[in-house]
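Standup notes, protein team

Yesterday: finished cleaning the Desulfosarcina alkanivorans set.
Today: Uroporphyrinogen decarboxylase (URO-D) domain-containing protein structure.
Blockers: none.

Input for Uroporphyrinogen decarboxylase (URO-D) domain-containing protein:
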Amino acid sequence: MENKNQSLYQERERRILDCIALKEPDRVPVVPLFAFFNCYFSGISPRVAYTEPEMAIDAWRKTINHFQPDATYSVNFTVYSMDNVLSSLDFKAMKWPGHGVPDDQSFQFVEAEYMKEDEYDELFRDPGSFFLRKMLPRLSGNLEGLAKLPPLELSALGYALPPVLAALADPDITRALETLLETSKMQVQWVSAFNAFAKELKDSGYPSIKEQTVFCPYDLVADNLRGTAGAAMDLLLQPDNLKRAVNQLAPFVSAIGINGAKGKSNPRVFIPLHKGTDNFMSLKQFKEFYWPTLQQLIVDLVEADCTPYLLIEGLYNTRLDVIKDVPKGKCIYHFEGTDIFKAKKVLGDTACIMGNMPNSLLTTGSVDQVKDHTKKLIDVCGDGGGYIMSASALIDEAKPENVEAWMETTREYGKYH
């Protein structure tokens, strides 16, 4: 890293760290979380980003170097895997450009009850086998053969190994294993390209707001296993099983977050929150089913010298007093739709506040409207420090002139000294 870029990196990183510690930096940092906006701004379609890795990276490079944010947002959270990987898997849990959504649109997750309501006992008895032989075949059409795998624990008995090996010769199992092998090689190529770009950004003076991502334990069940409807029914009909699953998964989530942050040399662990909103469960249910393991995840990360970065989607207007019970000056709370001015009042002495520039305003508003709202956010949320300017959510479509005005106003109006 050249001296100039190293100085820029340290300057930007210091702004972020000061905000997390609830201090006043030299100015309010602006971290826009560009997603497919990078494609539109650079003149390629999201479809191309999924099929041409180098063009995707170049789109991110051009956009970041043009707007020069105080921290970047990783490519691999927008383009999870390349088209060749997802297509080869026949991946069911996502629609991506050219496969279920138009070429010029963002991806969409496909939520379903990938774990059935009567399968909790199987999950509890052997989580590894359940994910291998039930979840993977349901998530990917070309891995359906894994459902035919024999009980692999028998292979630990020496005399049982030959019949287990013979079972693996089943054509459906062979096809699934070969698919895993080939797609893993393709995924490694994408990860290698992304890692090289991440290093390039760092060497160019840009910190990353996060690298490692985990789901809070309840969302891991409600997003990925039971689905929103299934989890909502379980809250009422089998709450004990739901709570046991959330508690059983919690230590694994903490370990993934901590180990990932250490391995990627970035302490900020991204936790997008989905199913704990005012609209999805009552405050009583939130306190009983959602918050305990999320709070423990936050504490575990902080004790491991990591920074929990929570993207709080939806509305948390009734939960602000609850989520205040975390280590002071150690977390980022990024709000989407929550009343951020109320959040600043309740949480301003506890957690760094981030976000709430409406994506709709960046997309359909005027330059003057963007400037006025930017100043209001700085006046209220930036008071005393502890605020990072960002949009409510990931930025796909936005007027470039609005983004320009937003970032420039933050840099000029957001100065503390």
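Follow-up from PR in the comments: The chain has one domain: 3-81+189-413.
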